[in-house]
Each structure stands twice: as C-alpha cells, then as structure tokens.
Amino acid sequence: MGGRDATMVLLDENGIRCDGRKIDEPRRIMIKAGGLKNADGSAYIEFGNNKILVGVFGPRDVHPKHMSNTDTGILRVRYHMEPFSVDERKRPAPSRREIEISKVIKEALEPAVMLEKFPRTAVDVFIEVLQADGGTRCAALTAASVALADAGIPMRDMVAAIAAGKVADTIILDVNNEEDQAGQADMPVGYMPSLEKITLLQLDGVLTPEEYKKCVDVGVQGCKVVYELQKKALTDKYFGKGGD
Ligand code: CDP
C-alpha cells in the first residue's frame, strides 16, 4: 500500500491492469466443493494464483466445556498460511495477521450460520492457504461458505467475497498482490447476495466518500459473480459432475 513500487505500471493507457485484466474483471475463479474424506465438509478454491483448502468439522462437542454456550453453537475459525505459500518463507508460528484474519472471517460467517440450532456445540473451520497472491481472506471466506454448506450446516445464505480497490486513481475489482502492495486502496467485501447483507468490509488506504461508495458497489457486484460460482460448485458435486 502507499506506492511502495512507484515504477510499476498498475494501469496502462488502454485501461489494462498489470496482469492483463480490465478494471472490472475478476481473476479466474475455480471452486470445488468436497474433496477431504475426513472432514464433514470441505472446499478448494483457486482465486487467481491463490490456492486455498478449507475443512469443516461439526457441529461437535466443545472442549474445554466451559467454552461452550448453552443457548447457541459457536463458530471457530483458523486461517493458516503454509510457510511456502508466499515468496518470503512465512514463519510457522501463528502471526498477528493470521489471528486477525481468522477473527474477521469468523465474524463474517456468523450472520450466515444458524448456530442457534446447535446449542453447546462448535463448528470448526480450518483454512489452509497453500499459495497466496493477494486477497486470501476473500478467497478463504468464499471457500469456507461452500465448505459449511457441504457439511450440511443450516445457513441463511452463503457469504461471497472479493476485494474492490483503487489503483492509478481508478476503482478496480479484485485486487491482486501487486495492486495491494503498490496501489492506493484495498477494500475486501463479504456479502450475502440473497439477504443483501454485507458481513465483511475492511479498508486499507484512502478514498474520497464518492470512491468509497463506488468501491462498495463494485465489491458487492463482484460478490454476486462469486456467489454464482459457489452455487455451481455445490450443484456440480450434488447434482452433476465432480463428486468426491
Ligand atoms: O491476503 P489478503 O489480501 O487478504 O491479506 P493481506 O494482509 O492484505 O496480504 C496481502 C498479500 O500479501 C497476501 O495475499 C500474500 O500474497 C502477501 N503476504 C506475503 O507475501 N507474506 C506474508 N507473510 C503475508 C502476506
């Protein structure tokens, strides 16, 4: 953020971005529901060069017991980056960043999951980032929603996520790693399209009020595209090609 690499051309004179995309074009997104035999539900996502696997376990007993809630179930989320997932080896110990992302993904998923149906239990979501290239929290949140649905956890809606942002004074959809590092703003958006509710909204960078509104709008529209791919991943597994 903040123009660390001032020499990089993030948007050329034809409005084409550093990876060849148009300003409103998401990266290639591939979502697969299922795949992990020992999980209750799972999903794998490729979001551009991001590669992320999610396993869901539960609803199951909570240990230690005092962490359980007699009125409702609880959601626990662990976002973990493999040391080899980034160019400069990440130390294996949980970083502040991983703890923060685990928290925001948990809070973004909670409005979608009907935890009140499972008092005293926990639903655990394990996120393994195998390869990272900017936007892992959005890709992980997207895959986690599919994995929860795959586990048969009752949900109000799925959360779809994608980041909007700003490079070269232009609002763009789906911020990649270079754009995140050298661009002007990065706004991850998580959205439940059927309920029309935003459950994740963060902003790194500076936007005018007009740009802020445009970013939210571009992000929400992008989430609707992601949502269709989430639904397709589930229908492919349960009603068509590509079962476990
Ligand atoms: O991944 P996301 O954009 O949600 O989170 P971020 O904190 O804005 O990180 C942006 C990107 O920086 C990640 O997707 C990785 O590609 C990269 N990164 C890295 O190279 N080394 C780290 N230890 C952490 C992140």
The succession of helices and strands, N to C, reads EEEEHEHEEHEEEH
The CATH class turns out to be Alpha Beta
CATH architecture: 2-Layer Sandwich
| Helix content bin | 25-40%
Termini Cα gap: 40 Å
Number of helices: 4
CATH superfamily: GHMP Kinase, N-terminal domain
CATH topology label: Ribosomal Protein S5, domain 2
Tertiary shape: globular
Decide which structural class fits the backbone: alpha+beta
Quaternary structure annotation: single chain
Gyration radius, in Å: 18 Å
Give the overall pLDDT as a whole number. Answer: 95
Largest beta sheet: strand ordering: 1-2-3-5-4
**What is the percentage of strand-forming residues?**
25-35%
Low-confidence blocks of residues: none
List keywords for this structure.
single chain; 244 residues; alpha+beta; Ribosomal Protein S5, domain 2; five-stranded mixed β-sheet; five-stranded antiparallel β-sheet; 29% strand; binds cytidine-5'-diphosphate
How would you explain this protein's 3D organization?
The chain has helices spanning about 95-110, 135-150, 175-180, 210-240; strands spanning about 30-35, 40-45, 50-60, 75-80, 120-130, 160-165, 170-175, 185-190, 195-200, 205. Helices cover about 25% and strands about 30% of the residues. The longest helix is centred in the last third of the chain and has 31 residues, at about 210-240. The strands form two sheets. It has a five-stranded mixed β-sheet. The protein is globular. It is built from four helices and ten strands. The protein is an alpha+beta fold and about 240 residues long. The chain has a single domain, classed as Ribosomal Protein S5, domain 2 (2-Layer Sandwich), CATH 3.30.230.70. Strand 6 (about 160-165) and strand 7 form a beta hairpin. The structure holds cytidine-5'-diphosphate. Cytidine-5'-diphosphate (CDP) binds near residues 90, 97, 134 and 180.
